[in-house]
Amino acid sequence: MGMYKVYVLFFFISTMGFAQTLEESIYVATETFISNKSETAYQTLKKHMRFFKNQVKTKDEQLALVFSQCHQGFYLSENSRLYEATLTYEDALKRFQDHQLSSLSDFDIIENCLKPLGNLYIQTGDYTNAESIIKQYTFLAKQHKNTHHQVSGAINLAKLYQTIGNHETVLKLISNAFRISKISHKQKEHLHHIKSTSLIALNQYDERAASNRLEKPSTFQKERNNYAIALKNGNYNDALKAFNAAKVFLNDENLNTREQAKLHFQEAQLQHLLNLPDQALETLQRAIKTLIPEFNTNSLPNQAHLYAENTFIDIFDLYAVLQKNPEQALKSYDLSFHVSELLQDNWTSQEAKIINETNNRIRSEKCISLLFDWYQQTKDKAALSKALHYSENSKASTLKAIFQKKMRLRKFPTDSLLIQELELLKAQERITSLLIKEQLSANRASKINDLSRQLSGISLEIKAIKPAISKKHADSKNPFPLKALQEQLLKDNAVLMEYFYGETAIYQFIVSGTKIFLNKIDLNSTSKNKILEYIHLFDEASIINNDIDLFTHKAFDLYKFLNFDAVSSHKNVMLIPDGLLNFIPFETLLNSKKKTTSFSNMPFVVKTQNIAYNASTFFYLAKNKTTPAPKLLGVFPVFENTKKQLTYSVNEAQAVIDETQATLLMNNEASKANFIQNAPQYGVLHLSTHASSGNLTKPANIDFYDETLYLNELYSLNLNADLVVLSACETGIGKLYKGEGPMSIARGFQYSGAKNLLFSLWQINDLSTSQIMHAFYSSYNKTHSAYNSNRQSKLDYLQNEDISNVKKSPYYWGAFVYYGDITKPNDSIPLLYILIGIILILIAVFLLLKLKKSHGKIIAGISN
Question: pTM surpassing 0.85?
Answer without folding.
Answer: yes
